[in-house]
């Protein structure tokens, strides 16, 4: 272990720092007194992080000169980009990031993936994650893969409407799904990035339990006092409903693929990775609901 690693003075770079996950990781690292570079395609949006002590840089993986933006970083958190609308673009960006990290002399990359991204996954963008994992494995870099399961926070996209109407349409069947809070993912990512561990590892980041859609609905009814009837529909009917609600086609296909992934049993793994990395137990879905009642019941 180097003196830099021992003293905790390695320079840590977080990409996607303008997003919710990246911003929180930067905040957590700054609270620890770490030297942090916050990277974003729009660094002007990072003024608050700069005021807290972060160096800010423009980091754009579509820029052929992006390696210069990574110069001086010892460890890098590569947060998967949001380029989902154009097939293939996200993976090209990630591969460019890996190549740039090698060229810039970065020692270790932490990457946010998803569970079971290997070929055969129903999730529409699983190939982007698998391809990125393969690019890291083929590189000279050390790496840590954080396979984050479905955010508890993402239930804010569907559950408030279900609570308001009393109906929740799904094609997930009786499949189990594990949720994890974005906060726990941020804490796990900050811990992995700040670690002095040089080994390459894969962690599946989950919450403490796996539930069916009916189980989540029952839990929500207990916490929010509003009954929700789960209505199982076909994948095609679910897609039609989402499209009718105004979601763009690529997002409709992604959402339906999540339900398929759950239905076929690929979303049910529960691990202790959050505790391993952070020393804290992950927040349960019940606790998340109780802490965010106003967000789930905005009219209450």
TrEMBL record:
This is NAD(P)H dehydrogenase (Quinone). InterPro entries: NAD(P)-bd_dom, NAD(P)-bd_dom_sf, NmrA-type_oxidoreductase. Residues 16-194 form the NAD(P)-binding domain. It comes from the Bacteria. PANTHER family: NMRA-LIKE DOMAIN-CONTAINING PROTEIN, QUINONE OXIDOREDUCTASE 2.
């Amino acid at each position: 272990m180097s003196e830099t690693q021992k003293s905790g003075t390695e320079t840590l770079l977080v990409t996607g720092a303008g997003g919710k996950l990246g911003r929180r990781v930067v905040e957590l690292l700054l609270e620890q007194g770490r030297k942090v570079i916050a990277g974003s395609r729009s660094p002007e949006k990072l003024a608050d992080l700069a005021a807290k002590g972060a160096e800010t840089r423009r980091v754009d993986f579509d820029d052929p000169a992006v390696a210069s933006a990574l110069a001086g970083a010892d460890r890098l958190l590569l947060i998967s980009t949001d380029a989902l609308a154009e097939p293939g673009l996200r993976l090209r960006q990630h591969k460019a990031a890996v190549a740039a990290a090698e060229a810039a002399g970065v020692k270790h990359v932490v990457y946010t993936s998803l569970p079971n991204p290997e070929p055969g996954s129903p999730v529409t963008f699983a190939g982007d994650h698998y391809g990125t994992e393969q690019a890291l494995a083929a590189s000279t870099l050390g790496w840590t893969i954080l396979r984050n399961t479905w955010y508890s926070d993402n239930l804010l996209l569907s559950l408030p409407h279900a609570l308001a109407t009393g109906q929740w349409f799904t094609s997930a069947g009786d499949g189990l799904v594990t949720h994890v809070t974005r906060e726990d993912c941020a804490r796990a990512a900050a811990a992995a990035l700040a670690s002095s561990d040089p080994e390459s590892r894969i962690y599946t980041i989950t919450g403490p339990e796996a539930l069916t859609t009916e189980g989540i609905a029952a839990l929500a009814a207990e916490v929010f006092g509003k009954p929700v009837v789960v209505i199982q529909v076909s994948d095609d009917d679910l897609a039609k409903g989402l499209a009718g609600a105004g979601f763009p086609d690529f997002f409709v296909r992604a959402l339906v693929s999540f339900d398929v992934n759950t239905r076929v049993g690929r979303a049910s793994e529960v691990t202790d990775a959050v505790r391993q990395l952070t020393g804290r137990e992950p927040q349960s879905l019940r606790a998340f609901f109780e802490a965010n009642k106003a967000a789930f019941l905005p009219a209450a």
